[in-house]
Amino acid sequence: MNIPKDLRYTKTHEWIKPNQETVTVGITDYAQHEISDIVFVELPKVGQEAAQGKAICVVESVKAAFDIYAPVSGVVKSINTTLESDPAMANKDPYGNGWFFELTPADSEEINNCLSHSEYEDFLKQSTH
Amino acid sequence: MPPYYFETAMTTDSMTAHKQLPVHTEHLALGAKMGIFGDWEVPLYYRSVIEEHDWVRTGVGVFDISHMGEFFVRGKSAEIFLNQIVTNQVSRLEDGKALYTPVCRPDGGIVDDVIVYRLKADSFLVIVNAANVEKDFEWFVKNNQTDTVVSNETDRFALFAVQGPRSTAVTERLLEQTVSEMPYYSIRQAAHWKTGYVARTGYTGEIGYEILCPAEQATKIWRALMAAGKTEGIQPIGFGARDTLRLEAGMLLYGQDMTDETTPLEVGLERTVFFEKDFIGKHALLNQKKSGVKKKLAAFELLERGIPRHGYDVYVNGQKTGVVTSGSYSPTLKKNIGLALLEQPHVQAGEIIDIQIRQSQVKAKVVNFPFYKRQKKEKG
């Protein structure tokens, strides 16, 4: 299972990459693997407010729909429209071209509530055994 | 993504109450992602629902459907009893032939949809839905006014469905007997096995065979089947693809597309109701036929982005007119499709309907059944 060291994580399997002014959000390799074939992504709207821990968009596999939660509060700055035409990109390249959206955080401290890569790795070990 | 955890079995705790298939450990060894289907723990997929779906449409796959129920109905009056309890015409069956039929309540509501196989004049096999085994068995026993013996032998059998364009060659190699000339909806004894049957039935819209064998030989036969299908590239197929395959082929799922609350006429199964005989539910269905059905199952495809799911509401001109009973992405058509129980007169092909998906309404068009039809050129 691929868990890059330079990202932060949530227990709901989103990853967060801190940029200069914003953070980029996507779903983890574990999440895309568990969801399996992703056939639809409903992205948030640019300008939409996000609240930490609240559902902000939806991913659907052949079988079911899954909520994706905002890892931090803020405003949606941009979205990855590639996922609308090629939702399977979230399976193929979850940490790269399969990113979901970019947020301008309301509170730059909030990201510290997220898990580090080693904490996320431990969390996965606990929850799958 | 919490809904996931309800969908699939993640922890050993949540699984203890569920029944396991006779070749459960084979599925685990094949890397199956297990999930819950009714009372059963079943493989949802092994590698990918879409890959498995495509493989059944183009090659050959095997489904473990041992969760299905098997009743044997035996005795001189077996045919009389069955003709009374199912809506279709059992008396037209010859030895080795089968039919698909609803079982109805007196009010016409569907108890279950089953396949009745005539083995001999006084011996029938009935394959019922897993979730309905207890309910059906009670219903069969309660409505048996003859000396027919109905026995629930579900636990004695494993059932493997070999489906796809290359299924004939695999089945013949496994059983060491010819099956290529078996007509659709027929059954035969497995020639070299003490107990076992091969039926030319399935739930995928492809040519295929269902192999019924004793549960204690299930592992041996499963392995033999995988070995027999090696040349053809046989793959195990999970319940995810089973659902998308059957939906594309316009086959209904009990508990979703039909329930105790819907009648065969409402879900498009009128062809399986034989009114020239007596049977449970006949009066209610005749009355409904005369007065006309108020709601009917329709097939639709989405015109805008979104995936329809079981339970979503359907609107026409802002009026709620029905509900989605099944819905999915269709791997073969690469469209989002579904079935919905709609109020008349909105069931005509071409009708535009709105599906309520979360906060928005998404346009869809009613289309003809089925979504997918195999090209009739049967080759082993």
Automatic annotation (TrEMBL), chain A:
Cofactor mode of binding and number, as noted: Binds 1 lipoyl cofactor covalently.
Key words, A-Z: Lipoyl
CDD domains (alphabetical): GCS_H
GO biological-process terms attached to the record: glycine decarboxylation via glycine cleavage system; protein lipoylation
A Pfam family annotated for this UniProt entry: GCV_H
Modification sites for N6-lipoyllysine: K63
Gene Ontology cellular-component terms listed: cytoplasm; glycine cleavage complex
InterPro entries given in the database record: Biotin_lipoyl, GCV_H, GCV_H/Fam206, GCV_H_sub, Single_hybrid_motif
Cofactor(s) of this protein: (R)-lipoate
Lipoyl-binding domain residues: 22-104
Keyword Lipid metabolism: no
Subunit structure: The glycine cleavage system is composed of four proteins: P, T, L and H.
Annotated function: The glycine cleavage system catalyzes the degradation of glycine. The H protein shuttles the methylamine group of glycine from the P protein to the T protein.
Protein name: Glycine cleavage system H protein
Organism per entry: Candidatus Abzuiibacterium crystallinum
Organism phylogeny: Bacteria, Pseudomonadati, Candidatus Omnitrophota, Candidatus Abzuiibacterium
From TrEMBL, chain B:
Record's keyword terms, sorted: Aminotransferase, Transferase
Entry-linked HAMAP family: GcvT (MF_00259)
GO terms classed as biological process: glycine decarboxylation via glycine cleavage system
Chemical reaction(s) catalysed: N(6)-[(R)-S(8)-aminomethyldihydrolipoyl]-L-lysyl-[protein] + (6S)-5,6,7,8-tetrahydrofolate = N(6)-[(R)-dihydrolipoyl]-L-lysyl-[protein] + (6R)-5,10-methylene-5,6,7,8-tetrahydrofolate + NH4(+)
Species of provenance: Candidatus Abzuiibacterium crystallinum
Family: Belongs to the GcvT family.
Record's GO cellular component terms: cytosol; glycine cleavage complex
Assembly behavior: The glycine cleavage system is composed of four proteins: P, T, L and H.
Principal EC category: transferase
Classification via SUPFAM superfamilies: Aminomethyltransferase beta-barrel domain (SSF101790), Folate-binding domain (SSF103025)
GO molecular function, one term: transaminase activity
Every Aminomethyltransferase C-terminal domain range: 295-373
Function of the protein: The glycine cleavage system catalyzes the degradation of glycine.
All residue ranges annotated as the GCVT N-terminal domain in the record: 24-277
Domain of life of the organism encoding this protein: Bacteria
Pfam name, any one: GCV_T
Name of the protein: Aminomethyltransferase
Lineage: Bacteria, Pseudomonadati, Candidatus Omnitrophota, Candidatus Abzuiibacterium
Annotated residues for binding of substrate: E210
EC number(s) from the headed UniProt entry: 2.1.2.10
